[in-house]
Amino acid sequence: MKPMFKPGKNIAIKVPSHEYEQTVAFYKDILGLTLRQVSSPDSIESTTFEFGNKNLWIDNIAGISQAEIWLEIETDDIEAAEAYFEAMGCTKRDEIEPLPSEFNGFWISSPSNIIHLITQ
Length: 120
Fold this sequence. Notes:
Shape: globular
Strand content: 35-45%
CATH topology: 2,3-Dihydroxybiphenyl 1,2-Dioxygenase, domain 1
CATH superfamily: 2,3-Dihydroxybiphenyl 1,2-Dioxygenase, domain 1
Number of domains: 1
CATH architecture: Roll
Order of helices and strands: EHEEEHEEE
CATH class: Alpha Beta
Radius of gyration: 15 Å
């Protein structure tokens, strides 16, 4: 049985350190998006904006050469989702960014290397 999937509440733009301040300024000053105070379990420097009913995270990531978009997908059954993605040949990518040990989720990659956080 295929698990249910729907968009999660978070979109992350992983930005190279040399572009971080200008990217935050673009969303804050040019687009005028509202800053959102959201605590992150990560030690990554982040700025979060309201993006409709979503959180738009701008993350400062040293060592990358270009920005990446990461998406959150929610499921009703995390174990079934993990088995489903494995059966479908999707690449699990838990090495991409550590998750807290108590976090109920995992990372996968689409065929075009877009990272997705699968959560319950």
